[in-house]
Amino acid sequence: MDGIDAIEISGNNFKKLNQPTPYFLENALKIRNKVNVPIILVGGFRNVNQMNNALEKGIDFISMSRPFIADENFVQKLKNDEESICVNCNECFEIFKTQHKRCALRKDIIHQLEINFP
Ligand SMILES: Cc1cc2nc3c(=O)[nH]c(=O)nc-3n(C[C@H](O)[C@H](O)[C@H](O)COP(=O)(O)O)c2cc1C
Ligand code: SF4
Predict the structure, then answer these.
(1) Atom 17 in ligand 1: which residue has the minimum CA distance?
(2) What b/e readout covers 81-105, taking b as 16+ CB neighbours within 10 angstroms?
(3) pLDDT tens sequence for the chain (118 residues)
(4) Which ligand 1 atom is the nearest neighbour of the CA of 88?
(5) What pTM did the predictor assign?
(6) 43 lines ligand 1 (CB under 6 A)
(7) Which neighbouring-strand residues pair with 106?
(8) Cβ neighbourhood burial of 65 (10 Å; 0-12, 13-18, 19+)
(9) What is the Cα–Cα distance from 3 to 11, expressed in whole angstroms?
(10) C-alpha of 85 from chain center
(11) What's the longest Cα–Cα distance across the chain?
């Protein structure tokens, strides 16, 4: 039996705007207390303080999506204690398909992949 390496807590509530972030932290902590495998939390992390807070509360790993869509230099910005520019508008779900662009705030960057959508 291979077992489980980790559990990532995610969900689709992030599509609702103006929710407090990070999403699902309390839910993830409840699961953290019930299982003996690392917990990964994704959703709404935009600055180092949020990440440290979640890690201090017991979350093992943090993952992110939209901050990297918005800014390819996001890791470097975190090191400089800058926040993500992502405003959680969720335009990236559609504009990649229609315009091959990644982020609504970054009209300068065109996705590099050559993909033909039906
Ligand atoms: C363009 C886009 C595509 C995504 N596709 C998936 C997917 O296929 N499966 C999935 O579980 N989550 C998907 N997600 C959700 C992300 O993994 C993540 O849970 C969500 O964006 C919240 O994290 P964030 O605030 O760091 O972006 C997608 C997110 C974006 C922005
Ligand atoms: S399109 Fe909106 S939600 Fe997506 S990465 Fe850019 S700012 Fe964030």
Answers:
(1) 65
(2) eeebebebeebbeebbeeeebbbbb
(3) 678 999 999 876 666 666 778 999 999 999 999 999 999 999 999 999 999 999 999 999 999 999 999 998 999 999 999 999 998 888 888 877 776 678 888 767 655 544 444 4
(4) 25
(5) 0.87
(6) yes
(7) none
(8) middle
(9) 23
(10) 13
(11) 48
Type of residue numbered 47:
N
Phi, psi of 11 (to 5 degrees): 165, 175
Ligand nearest to the CA of 42: 1
Are 84 and 67 in contact, with CB atoms under 8 Å apart? Answer: yes
74 touches 84 (CB < 8 A): yes
3-state secondary structure of 116: coil
The answer to whether residues 22 and 84 touch, using CB atoms and an 8 Å cutoff, is no
